[in-house]
Structures are given as C-alpha cells and as structure tokens.
Amino acid sequence: MTARHTVTRRRMVKGLVGASALTAAPAFLRHASAAAPIKIGIPTVITGGYALLGSQVIRTCKLVKKMTDAKGGVLGQPVEFFYQDTQGDPATCVRKCQELVERDNCRILSGVIVSSEAAAMLPKLEEWNAIFISHGNGDGRLTAELLVPRFFRANTSAPMGARALALYLKDAPEKKFIAMASDAAWGRSSNAAFEEQIKKVGKDLVDKMYAPVANKDYSPYITRILQSGAQGCYVALQGDEARAFYSQATQYGLAQRVQFFTEIVAQADIKVLGKDAIGLMGSSRYPLTYDIPQNNAFREAFMSEYKNEIPDWSDGEMYQALMILFAAIEKAGSPEPTKIAAAMEDLDVTSVKGPVLMRKCDHQGENQGFVVKVARNEKYAEPVAEIVKIYPREMNTPDCRSSSFSK
Amino acid sequence: MSLGFILAQCLGALSQAAVLFFIACGLTLIFGIMRIINFAHGAIFMLGAYVGFTIVAVTGSFLLSLLLAPIVVGGLGMAFERVFLRHLYGRRDGGAYLLLTFGLAVVLSEVIRVIWGAQPRASGIPDFLRGIVVIVEQPFPLYRLFLIAAGLAAALAVWQFLERTRAGLLIRAVSQNAEMVHALGTDVALVRTAVFGLGCAMAALGGVLAAPLVTAFLGMGTTVVIDAFVIVIIGGMGSFLGSLIGSVLVGFVQVLGAYYFQDLALAFMYFLMLIVLVIRPGGLLGRED
C-alpha cells in the first residue's frame, strides 16, 4: 500500500506561512541592520577655557543629526553622536577617545578642539580601528610629519589661513609687519607659515612674538607692537586670548595705528567686541556670508534652529567635516572605518565653503582661501565678516605632506 | 629706550599688579585668619566678573557694579563659610578644606555655565574711562590708570581697616591666637565669617575690574589664581603687606619678562618664587612656621 500525501488546506496555509517566514527573514534582518545607527564619537571641550568652541561643535552636531535623520539618515541609517569632555588636555582626550571606542563602539571620531589633543590621538587610531576627521585642528604638522593613514583634515589649516592673508597682503599698502601668536602648536605653526609667506611676497616681518597659552595681560606685547614701527600686525590668537588681546589693543588705541590681520575671524569674538571689531581683517575658516546654495541652506537652518545665533567658524567647519564624512560613507556604501578611509581619498565635495578635495597624498582637504573684513550688515544684529577676496583651493593648500608652499 | 617707553612699561606692570592684588589680598587674608588655602578663589573672582556684568547690563552703571558685585559675592562667601566650612574647624588635617574649596570651585564654574552660558560676556568700559593718556609720547589707556588708582585705594583702605579699627585689631588678634581671643569673649566664629566674606568680596572686585581687560569667560580665574598663590607664597602666607609687595613684584616680572624674554616669561615668576623661598622660606614678610 502506498502512502498518500494529501495536501490539505490547513497544511497549505502552514506551508505558506513557513515559507514566507523563511523568505522574509533575511529582509527582516537587513532592516534591523539598516536601523542600527552610525555612531560618531565627539571628544570635545565641554569644560575649561575652550568650552565655547566645544559648545559650538555640539550644537552643530545636534543640528546635523536633526537634518540628516529627517532626510532618512545616511545609507538609510540614523546618525548618533556620543559626546565626551576632553577639557582641552591631550592625555584626557586620549582617555575619552578610548572610552568612546571601547564602551560606545564609536569608530568614527571628530570634534577635537586643540591641535595637541589631535596629535596625541593619531598614533592610537590604528589600534582603535577608528578614523578621525578633523573639523578645526590647525597645526600644519598633522598632515605632514605627524600624518597617519586614518587621519583626515577637512578644515583649513593654520598654514592655509596664513597663506590666504599673505596672498592678499602682497598688494596691500602695508610694507612692515609684526606677528603675534599663542605659544601653542597652532600658534607656532601659524607664525611660521606667515613668516614664510609674507617674506615670499616681498614684505618685511620686523618681529614675531609668542604669548603664553591663556595669557591675560597683553600690555607688553602691545607696547612692543607700538615700538616696532610695523604698519600691519598678524594675530594668531583665538578664543579668550584673542578677545583679551583685542580688548586691550582697543584700549591702547592700537587699531588707529596698526591694521590687524587675524588668522581666524571668529563670530564669538565679534559679538563680544561689538563695534570695536569693525574693520578687523583676517582669514576666515568659515565665510558666513558666502553666497552659494549649500551655505545659504546651512545658515538658514542654523539660524532657524538657534534663534539669535549666528554660526561661527567652528560651526561651519564642523558641518563641512560631517558632510564630507557622510559623502564618504555613501561612496563606500558602508560605515566601516577602513572603507570610509578608502572612500575619503580624492573625494570631491561641494560644501558650505565651496569645492573641497580630500587629496589622497596627505588627507588634507583642499579648501578655498577667504580673506574677510568685519563690517555692519543689516541682515544681522551684530557685525559680521564680509568676504573681501577668495583664493582658489589649489593656490591655498600647501605642498603634499608639508606646511610650505613651493608655488 | 625712551623715558616714555620705560614709564609705559612700569605703568603696565602696576596695572597688572593691581588686578593681581585684589585676588591675592583676599587669599592671604583668608589664610591668615583661617589657615585655609581657598582653592575656590579663582572661581569667586570669575563669579565677581559675571555678577558685575549682570549689574552693568541691568543698571547700566559700571560704578554700581564695583559696589554691588563684591557685596553679593561676599555675602555668598559668608553663607558658604557658615554652612560648610564652619563644621570642619575642629579637624586637624587640612585635606578636608582643600577638597571642600576645590568642590566649591567646580560647582561655581558649572553654575556660572548654566546661568550665563558658555558665551563670554563683555561689560565694557564706561565712557569716562575710555581713551588714552599720552605720557612722554607714549599712549597709555586711561582705564589702566584707573586700575592702578583702584588698587592703591583698596590697599590703603584694607590697611587702614586692619591697623586703625577695632575690627581690624580683632582680625589680627585672631590670626595670632584665636583661642586667647575667644577666651576674652570675642565671637571668633563671627570674625572668621566676616574675613572669609571680605576675602571673597576682594576677589569679586578684582573680577569686575579685570572683565574689561579680558572679558568674563569660563576659566578666567584659573591662571589668575595660580599667579595669586605665587604672590602669597612670595609675600608670605597671611601677610597683607606681603601680598601687596608680591603683587607688584609679580606684575613687573610678568610684564618685563614678556617684553624682554618671551620664551621664559612664564618661568620668571616661578624663578622669583624659588629665589624668595631659598632666601626666606616663609616668604618676604611671612612667618617661617
């Protein structure tokens, strides 16, 4: 007797449910994987002297998360930021990065404020299986002698800031200059680049000075500037140091005798200095008024999110770094660090600062050079930096793996 | 080197000394009476700057901020002394004071961040103190001359208070032998509270005066308090006159060091401290115990 295998209706339904469950399983798993967030570690300064810059980094990350998630994320995955306070201290920065990597499984790092913190992190990236994309670290050596394969600099470096100014000053009426910088890696790098550049354009650098980090009294430096007979003063100070210097220089009436050219024009400084900032010239890391669709969209989104706030250079650079990162993730088709690193090389993106090329040879983003002057603008409640001159990115970026410009 | 240049350098050093004196004087007064090294003094200096900024923003008067900010901050200091420090006087070890005042510094910094935000604040200089004075062809800010005058006036006032008033006599007596003064019927606890408040008020006044030079920002007290500790060590822990002399010395060393020996500008202040400690371990006018 042969057994008869009848297909009853009940068996048919069971079979269909089972088959569809098997078929659907990979899709379900794929969906779960797609919903997993892309984790980005932000080791930044939350307390201490650079807390203002850290607060700008964090507010921009929050805005970017909101904007990106609203568009459906990156590769369909939401982004998630993890913040840690480095206090501006290299050793603390390394420890906090370790926590971000090991505890929160963040393999993408950004938002580091101080160049010496960044330099301390670089040797650990391989061990952490992480990549680090700089949004604001200026020390020229990071993409030269200190470069590691997992480090990328999306931002304008100190030599690039000095370069734009030197190119501008070539045709300026001032002949004699004096340079003033913070005695930190970034300040040293800036002064060295300015010295090289200004001599190259045939101008005279009569003196250069370094003030200790977190210096408060600038009267001896101001006296020295007055004594030097310089017509222009290059200033590589930022944050609290810059505000103290400009406040005291104004009290000495120095701006009436010497034209300042600052390495970074910061909106936070303009806000505090008010009308005393008008006329200040310098290089801009992020040109607020740059009229291109990408920047207009960012500026409007920012000012809509943060009422009465104007994006500062740190906001603009952080936004650019994240846009470049997301473009690399999409190009790689994966948020895996080594794949992002490969995709990042020679990535060409148009960002809030215009076209940026993440060149392969040293991972330095080729950024345009912006020279700006602080002026009143009826669109804003406080004075802002207006663009005076833009230099092409090829002209504004140093030689490969170098802080110097051979051209 | 012209006479005007030398004068400008000296005046710059004196204006820096004036700001340092306000914070060092408070620090040494508190140590002299209470034998407490107040780690929160830098944060109190910063609080003074922020409170001063708010008073200027509300009233529009810088002079009023010079009066009210020390009263507000001094009052808060007295409350802190009564609520927290008083319970620790019986303890022989100084570690508890260090931890408590360090904790106060952290709490104050965070409170300031929450109330005023991370954005720095500028109170500006009133119109009557704006401008420069030309001294032998060298421009010098009027505001810095005001700082020198304010420092001198405060030093004279505190000195007169300590030397010529009954309250000052009691303070000096408590600093030398608190138990004896207590046995004679004086409320030593009240003297301690008042001195802690006075020290905080002095630091706050320094903060208000320093704000137009450096703006009010988170961390503004960090480096200043280190300078103040150096001054107090140079002048002698607990010595009012020592803090005055120490402030002037450190002011000159900082200004001249920054002008002539940039790379060693920071180190000079510590060299000075080391030299003084080698020659007089208790500081210039301090006791060697």
Description:
The complex is a heterodimer of chains A (407) and B (289). Chain A has 407 residues and is an alpha/beta fold. Chain A has 2 domains: 196 residues, Rossmann fold (3-Layer(aba) Sandwich), CATH 3.40.50; 153 residues, Response regulator (Rossmann fold), CATH 3.40.50.2300. In chain A, the strands form 3 sheets. Chain A has a 7-stranded mixed β-sheet with strand order 7-6-8-9-10-14-15, with helices on both faces. A 5-stranded parallel β-sheet of chain A has the order 2-1-3-4-5, with helices on both faces. In chain A, helix 7 links the parallel strand 6 and strand 7. In chain A, helix 2 crosses helix 12, helix 3 crosses helix 4 and helix 12 crosses helix 13. The longest helix of chain A has 27 residues. With 289 residues, chain B is mostly helical. Chain B has a single domain, classed as ABC transporter involved in vitamin B12 uptake, BtuC (Orthogonal Bundle). Helices cover 74% and strands 3% of the residues of chain B. Chain B is built from 10 helices and 2 strands. Chain B has a two-stranded antiparallel sheet. The longest helix of chain B has 32 residues. The termini of chain B are far apart. The model of chain B has no long low-confidence stretch (mean pLDDT 91). At the A-B interface, helix 2, strand 7, helix 8, helix 9 and helix 10 of A face helix 1, helix 4, strand 2, helix 7 and helix 8 of B.
